[in-house]
Each structure stands twice: as structure tokens, then as C-alpha cells.
Amino acid sequence: MDEKLETLRQWIAESHNIVFFGGAGVSTESGIPDFRSVDGLYNQQYAYPPETIISHSFYVRYPEEFYRFYKDRMLFADAKPNAAHRALAKLEADGRLKAVITQNIDGLHQMAGSREVLELHGSVHRNYCTRCGKFYSLDDVIRSEGVPRCDCGGTVKPDVVLYEEGLDSNTLEKSVRYIRQADMLIIGGTSLVVYPAAGLIDYYRGSKLVLINKDATARDSQADLVINGRIGEVLGAVTGVQ
Questions:
Q1: pTM higher than the cut 0.85
Q2: 76-115 burial code (b ≥16 CB/10 A, e <16)
Q3: Per-residue pLDDT tens over the stretch 131-163
Q4: Residue 121 is among the residues annotated as catalytic for this protein
């Protein structure tokens, strides 16, 4: 492990156009459960499978059940950035990291200080009335009873990408451009099984592809460096961030 960490540290020092692509594992050290681990979201017991509950058709048909699950299992208002978020913000401030591309919806990268954050799946911090478009904050949703309603009577929907919904094309295209131009791509905290996000790895053209994840992924053989470990500990160790 020490040899791999030293290689990662050296590659970062040599790079000036780093892009980071991360998933749920980036936020587990902040107390936010991931999706597919033993204690993950998909292994919780509910009347419907989580994949069904967080789908567009379920939201439209059963908004009360959707919001009961959403508020209970997907909102973590007290979560704070961990070493991974802080390390990435430092690399951006140092001029080495150009963008964070994330599948997470928790806003912790911005809270840590990252500025160029591309949120593929949206954010719990943005919520809009489906009738008039009025903005509502995360606190507004948390404080609401049942289904949050707008002053105009419309339903407030979180700006997150549900199953059956497409990713924002502008965000996706911008992510592809960043990855194509990167001299180093660090992928962390993702099993690389959710498409189209997982397919972004295929646009990288450089020779410093790093995969950091607790478990092996189906893409490990494509990487130039694979580190199995907690991403906060790994990035913290190579950047000096606690």
C-alpha cells in the first residue's frame, strides 16, 4: 500500500489537469450510507424496493410514500465533509484539480470548498415547485409535513435524477470534455455499475487512470493504478489533509 500511495502522490505532483469522478463511497466516511454494501440503501427493508421508490413513476403515483422514504433514508442535513472532500478542495485550490464529477446529491464537495462540481444526479439542496418553479431549500423540505407543497399549491420536487429520468445533457457533455482533456483521472468510491455515469471512464485518453475503492470493480483491469481502501484515508494521506 505504501508504494501505491507514493506513486499516487508522485502522479499528483506531476499533474496539472486532474479530474476526479466519485460515487457514494466518497460520502460514507461522512456517515451517509452507500447503496450496495451490506448496510447500504438497497439492503434496507421497505414495503417497496428502494429502486422502485426512487423512480419517477413511483414519485408521480405515490408521492407520500416517496417522500417518506426520501426524508428518512436520503437526507442527511447534519453530514459534514470528510478528508476526501477536503483533499479534493485543496487540490483544486492548488491549481491541480480542474473538476469534481460526482454521482452524489449531498452537496458535501461544495461545503468543503470545491468550486467546479458537476453533479450528475442533481442535489438535495435544490428543490422546485413543479407548477410555478419557485425554489425551496433542503431545510424547507425537511420541515415540511408529508409531501412538500408550494405557496401556489404545486408539489415541490427535489432536483435529483430519479430512475427513469435522464441525466442533464449539459452536465454530461461538460463532464466528457473535462475527462477527455485530463492528464490524470482519479475515480473513487464507486462500483462503476450505474450507467451512463460509469461509461464516462471510457472518454479518458491519458495514462494516469487511478481507481480508489474499498472493493474491486469491473474496471480495475483498465486502471494504471488500483488502490483498495477508504478514499478519505487514501486522499488524506497523499495530500496531508486530515
A1: yes
A2: beeeebbbbbbbbbbbbeeebbbbbbbbbbbbbbbbbebe
A3: 999 999 999 999 999 999 999 999 999 999 999
A4: yes
